[in-house]
């Protein structure tokens, strides 16, 4: 590959090469989040099988596994992908059969032998079955040549395979560079949802649980870790310099929960917990281990089910270059490094919060998914919904002073509302059988919506009752699979005779209305100001239309009013169980009413215009009279109701004007989405100035109260940090002189003293400090990134580098991402892609730099060679979505012409359609109304 390097890139390389000895081969850097769970076997009347879905992907139910003994051999320390294995599958025949059907993906089967167990448990040779493989269903069928009677058997299969390097699935290979500049390899696993079959032939369905005994043979200088503790490490009899690590048998569990790792990692320990990481990152392991200990103890106490009653230890492992995600394997949780490793000198409050919540999410799975798992992927929400919810509750229990719970609604409830307001959304309970369709179930519905719905019922039933019900559920279904009815039964048992629900209502009846239907309702409150009554009505909320829907949700509601503004009391709920109902509110005509206290319910609320006006007036007079969670709810609801044609957009924009006196983060987080929407529509147009005047009126007083945005006071709280970053980002974005002065000055001082700024303000300082930065300052920041050994820091610095407003600096950065120079080998593939997105995401300067660079046919060709066609298509799409005026459209058209055959006509046409849609918005009712509002506001 030949790269045409600009002078700035050459300068960057000088900086890189000056530290290359420390950087090249240093270690690849990592990232966070989560991934996760489920099951299925014998005739199951309660598992919803959709006849329209191809059920041939499901295994037959005439044999079931009881135990696996797996012996693996790997030479991964050399970078070799090849591995070999022998698996003994103990299984029972429960219906006489002439076929044993298991799963396999990409494993080469060498031989198979079948044994029957006699009454004394002794093995009797039963022949050597031949096998056939169905590529479509990934089913591997062994034919013993006769019908096997009911009984117990062992199938021994010898096989080989390759570690994955292009995906983080199955048994896959990663690497890092140690402090001596040597590349070291890490073999690790990700079996959920259907990837255990990539490491050994198995019954790869969640309900087909079994015990697992694992032996791994590997080079002696490496070590192995798995779900269970090591029982012994013995020298290999067949391979000199190798050892075999033998692990104890696991409890009965799903195949996707088996996990192992082979590496030269070391461990930090605290009691029965260990955190494994590469040796040159152990100084970043303390917080992740501390969080693991605190959260596991808190969740054991919360669920009344002690983790250590089932598992003897809990290990956490930080995988370099994993990209993102985490996996809750029972007893061995795997994370991207950014999800587990924290350096207070380099990482931000957001990284720390992310680790606390992700650790709590994965540890919640030790109960919800590991101890009890869904019978089939249809019920993935029994895993992910609980983990989503208890990620925040667990983190909040372990670190109450951080107020993590304040973030739940704005990061989850409101996040779920978007995708769940479309025609294409699915219900929480949804069947799927193909691997790709099963993977597709791990979506916002499984995580955000399901967690939100579970939280709604936690609040309705009361947390103490909910906990008691979860205990019943967990103990009744321990080491087995569950369906939704099992959860309902546990919760019902906890509230029977407690007068929690109205007579005639059951948990199943109420929850089914939320779990079996797609979408969610809008509760409309229309008041009669003469008699104090109100008519409540419900219908399904769509983001872009009004459409009849027959579903009736059982909606729990509570409300506060001006004369009774008690938002803290969540002990009393009423139920709307019909399409509409008239209620008495007890509120006088001159006081506001707000429903859905603290936004505990998973639904939107709309009011008549007069009630909205009274709410807006109350917020302007004293925001604190309305709970901060409801202030966030009101902003999010009002904007989305207006966009759906259910509310007046002018009233929404009026409502937001109280924000000049808002100092809590949650409402501002909701408002941030509204302001970003209009920013993206209006930037670069004649209406932009008016919008900026409006933004200034909202953020100005709050920004003035922040003081020095480039320093971090000792007593600054987590939510203060969130608010400061949000407000200062807007202040700098819209051109506040003081914001830009402080960030430029802080960056200049950092460069002069070669001392990075405090991590908690680093993004804003670096991103906006780069406006007008010299090449030397830009190279200094680039050098900070390329020399960092901490992946979370590297990600933040990449995002900041994309903020530059000098086209040559950005083009130089892009050529770094494309380049294959040995000096840049410390860049991970994910980091290269992140550089690309950081450039076009940070503003129009980046978009134009991208256009300029990729209009060079040679560079565009090299870009496709590095990233593939899909990434170029994505760039074109993102450039189009950020094209807002005639001049920018002309640039886009020239860009498309320059790319020529590198993109398809369909991609080019889609880009032009996007721009036309952007332009057409100004002639829509919403466009005319909002631009008129901002104009009137300015004048």
From TrEMBL:
It comes from Anopheles gambiae (African malaria mosquito). Residues 64-257 form the Aminopeptidase N-like N-terminal domain. Keywords: Aminopeptidase, Glycoprotein, GPI-anchor, Hydrolase, Lipoprotein, Membrane, Metal-binding, Metalloprotease, Protease, Signal, Zinc. Its EC number is 3.4.11.-. Binds 1 zinc ion per subunit. It holds the Pfam family Peptidase_M1. Residues 1-25 form the signal peptide. Its main location: membrane. It is an enzyme of class 3 (hydrolase). Residues 287-514 form the Peptidase M1 membrane alanine aminopeptidase domain. The keyword Cell wall biogenesis/degradation does not apply. This is Aminopeptidase. The lineage of its organism: Eukaryota, Metazoa, Ecdysozoa, Arthropoda, Hexapoda. It comes from the Eukaryota. It is a lipid-anchor; GPI-anchor.
